[in-house]
Amino acid sequence: MDFPIRRVVTGHDKEGKAIVLFDEISKTAISRRPGQTGCVVWTTEGFPVNNDGSADDGAREVQTGLPNGTILRVNKFDPGVTPRMHRTDTIDYAIVMSGAIDMTLDDGLVVPLKAGDVLVQRGTIHNWINNHAEPCMIAFILIDAKPVEIDGKRLDKTG
User: Fold this and answer.
1) Residue 78 in contact with residue 42, Cβ under 8 Å?
2) What per-residue confidence (pLDDT) applies to 99?
3) pLDDT of 64
4) Pairing with 58, which of 23, 38, 69, 136 sits 20 to 30 Å away (CA)?
5) 21: region left, alpha or beta (phi > 0 left; psi from -120 to 50 alpha)
6) In this structure, what are the phi and psi dihedrals at residue 136, rounded to the nearest 5 degrees?
7) Looking at the predicted structure, is the pLDDT value of residue 1 above 60?
8) Residue 45's closest CA among 66, 22, 24, 16?
9) Which residues touch 125 (CB under 8 Å, ≥6 apart)?
10) Helices H / strands E in the chain, number of each
11) What residue spans of the chain are helical by DSSP H?
12) How far apart, in whole angstroms, are the C-alpha atoms of residue 159 and residue 132?
């Protein structure tokens, strides 16, 4: 799958000097629906984050959240991407890197976003629609959050 996201990850050698642990084109690209490709760049668990060691925490299998953790994922949405309304139990920082895309909410509100725009997604049901001629690249930082509750009732993933 052609998805050339370069990731550079630093760490420390045995003497504590800064080194580059990984400098590569991501190998974790997957597609969960037609017209969408994504790769996990890095993950963390716990707080404060542990910067020790040299494990590849970008190789971890994750879905849309990591309990008490974070996920950095880059997604590409092709024109005509298959729709998928969903909610995550995370707070998501989305940074549109290139192209343009429309975010739709469950009430039908459409919010156009373009390269350079930043979205803070707070556990709402949403969808990504690319009605443009070019693919859209978005970096997502997903941070574990308490599930949304209204009047003491937890909202489910689809509404």
Assistant:
1) no
2) 98
3) 82
4) 136
5) alpha
6) -120, 130
7) no
8) 66
9) 85, 86, 87, 105, 106, 158, 159
10) 0, 13
11) none
12) 27
Amino acid letter for position 67: P
Closest CA to 90 of 157, 150, 36: 157
Domains and their CATH numbers in the chain = 27-148 (2.60.120.10)
- For residue 42, give the amino acid letter: W
Neighbours of 6 (CB within 10 A): 10
CA 152 to mean position of chain CA atoms: 28
Six-digit token pair at 2?
């052609």
Instruction: Write phi, then psi, for 28 (nearest 5 degrees).
Output: -105, 20
| CA atoms of 100 and 79, how far apart (whole Å) | 10
What one-character DSSP code corresponds to residue 147?
A: P
Q: Confidence band (pLDDT; 50, 70, 90) for 154? A: confident
Q: Who has greater pLDDT, 65 or 68?
A: 68
What residue type is assigned to position 91 of the chain? Answer: I
DSSP letter at 151 equals: T
Does residue 90 carry a pLDDT above 60? Answer: yes
Query: In 46-99, where do the E strands start and end?
Result: 69-77, 90-98
**Least trusted range by pLDDT, from 16-25, 84-93, 128-137, 145-154:** 145-154
